[in-house]
Design a protein that fits this description.
By secondary structure, the chain is mainly α. It has a domain at 3-72: lambda repressor-like DNA-binding domains (434 Repressor (Amino-terminal Domain)), CATH 1.10.260. It is built from seven helices and two strands. The protein has helices spanning 3-13, 18-25, 29-36, 44-53, 59-64, 73-76, 96-100; strands at 133-136, 142-145. Strands 1-2 form a two-stranded antiparallel sheet. A hairpin with a 5-residue loop joins β1 (133-136) and β2. Residues 74-82 and 95-99 have low confidence and may be disordered.
């Protein structure tokens, strides 16, 4: 299995389209398309972008196909993280602590977001004029029409 197939497998295992995966990882859609179509090979920066956004993905698996797709669960989630279930898999008796904790703050507050403005500049070009029109006929002849100067 080639690296492009492993990237596709990773994308599909996360239920992402090619466009969503490209946006999520910060890889340009054209670069990702080029890899999937076989025009180019994945670059180191592409692998770094994927690993930066998905740290639980094994770099050895992504680059060489060795090992498991994901690193062990112990590395991706702390063991003492609160859950809704007890150690035996049954609902925990005391869920009031989890239920009364305030919601976390959003990562980006709406007040600090700056909208990107697109500025379109029109370059003042002189008006174009027709200088010559040529008509070619099927008998290998042609006519040239030149407009009169105004």
């Amino acid at each position: 299995m080639e690296m492009k197939d492993r990237i596709r497998q990773l994308m599909e295992s996360n239920h992402m389209t090619q466009k969503v995966f490209a946006q999520y990882t910060g890889i340009s859609e054209a670069s990702l398309s080029g890899v999937f179509n076989g025009r180019t090979k994945p670059s180191l920066s592409m692998v770094e972008s994927i690993h930066e956004r998905m740290p639980n993905v094994s770099v050895d698996w992504l680059m060489f196909g060795s090992g498991e797709m994901y690193t062990s669960q112990a590395e991706s989630a702390p063991a003492d993280a609160p859950t809704l279930f007890g150690a035996d898999g049954q609902p925990a008796d005391d869920t009031s602590e989890v239920a009364t904790q305030p919601a976390t703050e959003p990562v980006v507050s709406s007040g600090n977001v700056q909208q990107q403005k697109t500025v379109v500049k029109f370059i003042d070009k002189p008006q174009r004029r027709i200088t010559e029109i040529r008509i070619f006929y099927d008998d290998q002849t042609w006519e040239t029409f030149v407009p009169k100067d105004r």
